[in-house]
TrEMBL record:
Record family assignment: Belongs to the binding-protein-dependent transport system permease family.
Compartments in which it is found: Cell membrane
Recorded topology in the membrane: Multi-pass membrane protein
PANTHER family tied to this protein: ABC TRANSPORTER PERMEASE PROTEIN MG189-RELATED-RELATED, SN-GLYCEROL-3-PHOSPHATE TRANSPORT SYSTEM PERMEASE PROTEIN UGPE
Annotated protein name in UniProt: ABC transporter permease
Cellular-component GO terms for this entry: plasma membrane
Native source organism of the sequence: Actinoplanes nipponensis
Length: 294
């Protein structure tokens, strides 16, 4: 009986090995394609980094793709001092962090009412949030400008925080509503049996279970707000209130800068967002792979 049982296994082993050999070329091709795409994405960043540490004469003599003969930090120092980059960096961090936290909280409250509370007219609310995500920012400029002027919030970080909190929470509400609609009813029933009210159920049950999705939303909201340019350009006029993208655009539009200083400004502008993404990469990956409901 043992010999008869092992015979099919011995026949299946060569077949499995053949399948693995056929799959190996396909995996190799996929790996090559991914490496090429990675190189396409990373190559511009490498070129910017190389030119940021070149001297103007080195750039003029050898071109943008050459390796710098020596590290030249004057372009970075000159740009940092010229735009008061420390202040711009602080403005961007305050705005992005505040929007991320407030937008996640607002998204959770809205999605809890729509996805778990199942309020009347839930579908129309979701359609409203979907349409809000599809509207271009250019359509919102005039009414938002008029409202900020009326409320005396124009040219302040508070106006940008309020605007982007609402904009980002529209996307967060639409996403979390579909997640909370499939939330396990057993957990909600257990919380009700224990005497938990709606808010206690939300903060003690729903939020901890959906923490991976909330971490993903927080990361995306931070990066999206950090990279915003158009609305901060309109609403932040004073130099002391400008964010990093606005400072880069205004400086390059008003003053002539050599290629190395321009590369230095681009490198300094994107470096904080890249560092933030790398710091939260594990949280982001865990949230995407694990899903919102465990």
């Amino acid at each position: 009986m043992t010999a008869l049982a092992t015979a099919p296994e011995k026949q299946a082993a060569p077949a499995q090995a053949g399948v693995n050999r056929r799959r190996y070329p396909a995996r190799f091709v996929v790996l090559i394609v991914l490496l090429i795409l990675l190189l396409i994405v990373v190559a511009p960043l490498l070129v910017v980094a190389l030119n940021a540490v070149k001297s103007p004469s080195d750039y003029a003599s050898n071109g943008p793709l050459s390796i710098p003969k020596s590290l030249h930090w004057d372009g970075i120092v000159d740009f940092w001092q010229r735009v008061d980059f420390s202040r711009k960096l602080l403005n961007s961090f305050i705005t992005s962090a505040a929007v991320s936290v407030l937008a996640v909280i607002l998204s959770v409250l809205n999605a809890y009412a729509l996805g778990i509370g199942r309020v009347r007219g839930r579908v129309w609310f979701l359609v409203f949030f979907l349409v809000a995500n599809l509207l271009p920012q250019e359509v919102l400029v005039y009414p938002l400008y008029y409202l900020s002027k009326s409320l005396h919030l124009y040219d302040s970080l508070l106006s940008i925080i309020i605007i982007f909190t609402v904009i980002q929470s529209a996307f967060g509400t639409y996403l979390l509503s579909s997640v909370y609609a499939e939330f396990p009813t057993e957990l909600l029933d257990a919380a009700a049996v224990d005497g938990a009210g709606r808010f206690r159920t939300l903060w003690r049950v729903v939020v901890p279970v959906s923490k991976p999705t909330l971490a993903v939303l927080f990361t995306f909201f931070f990066i999206w707000t950090w990279n915003e340019f158009f609305l901060p350009l309109v609403f932040l006029v004073a130099n002391a209130h400008q964010t990093v993208p606005v400072a880069l655009g205004v400086l390059q539009g008003e003053k002539q800068m050599d290629a190395t200083t321009t590369s230095a400004s681009a490198l300094i502008g994107i470096l904080p967002a890249i560092l933030f993404f790398l710091l939260f990469q594990r949280t982001l990956t865990r949230g995407i792979t694990a899903g919102a409901i465990k």
